[in-house]
Amino acid sequence: xSTIHFSAMPSRDAEHIWNGGTDAxxxxxxxxxxxxxxxxxxxxxxxxxxxxxxxxxxxxxxxxLQPYAETGPVFMxxxxxxxxxxxxxxxxxxxxxxxxxxxxxxxxxRIVYGTGSVTPVADIERYAAQLLGRxxxxxxxxxxxxxxxxxxxxxx
Length: 156
Known about the structure:
Blueprint: E1 5-7, H1 11-18, E2 30-33, E3 53-59, E4 72-77, E5 99-105, E6 117-120, H2 124-132, E7 139-144, E8 150-155
């Protein structure tokens, strides 16, 4: 099996929001209070604890607008947190659900059709490595199986 790397939201994107920037729809983020698990921070890839403030905003994890550039709501700690660094280890936030959508994208940032699969957590690494072994797949997204929300990216 090839080595894969889990990547959180880039710090430049998180810092933009923490420093008062607007989201993918040019809106300011909303502040909420976490009621417990189910609010995964896309920067540290951990769940936001109950009673902790969080930001919710529209995020587009693609470099440019195009038909396949999915945009959706994500959560992030309101107070700056350290970016997830243990890239060779499955992030803690992926233990919060029994399964996720794992989907491949080409170098052109478009979905590679036929790659999206609701995948049990125990099989994410294997399936991502299988997808990344294909020459037409540049990277993989892990998304919520229930709401299609972006969780993290996987690269070779």
